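Workshop exercise sheet. Pairs work together: one partner reads the sequence aloud, the other fills in the structure field after running the prediction. Swap roles for the next sheet.
Pair: D.N. / O.F.
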Amino acid sequence: MSNNRKTWDTFEAMRAAAQEGDAQAQCYLGVCYQNGQGVAQDYQEAVKWLRRAADQNDPVAQCYLGVCYWMGQGVPQEFTEAAKWLREAAEQGDPAAQCNLGTLYETGQGVPQNYAEAVKWYREAAARGYPAAQFNLGVFYETGQVVKQDYFEAAKWYLEAAQQELADAQCNLGLCYMTGRGVEHNMQQAAKWFIRAARQGNKTAQHNLGLYYASLEAAEEENTEAAS
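Structure field:
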């Protein structure tokens, strides 16, 4: 959740604050019901508390409520309603909402498909350190869609997200080092990032790592044969 949020010593104190109308407590309680933390998982109960907080203009609750509509958790799946709540939070500077709203614009769910608008929101969230937005922004720079193709800028954003352990960004950064796009060609660096992504289960990184090790073995065999 965002910085500068309240905390409570106990779950019951937080629940009591929520029942008394505290928006942040209502938001936390809603998230607890959504994730099954301290209570049995109950999406409808989550939506009830998230909506109470969202109606008080709590941006974190608005973001979570938007995701509930996006995923159809506790409410019927409604992309337009998802976009509405995500926009409310995004305009207050919530980076998760900004990234999610960017995704809706990229996919055309709940809003007209608009890549420029997607990039705008990804950039807002990326500047606030949100790793998924940093990765998505990097992809736009790498492909040259909407923005001018810029491998250096792509690698920069991949690195920002990779350092926050986003596996897809680590894999793409490894590819940058492997191909020399946006960074100097460096197979040791490529392997380093492939390993970090592969450990998180990224299939592309695992495949690329396998190819890298195979190339090392082939080179070693050639050197052995040349020396004999």
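Discussion prompt: The mean pLDDT is 95. What would you look at next?
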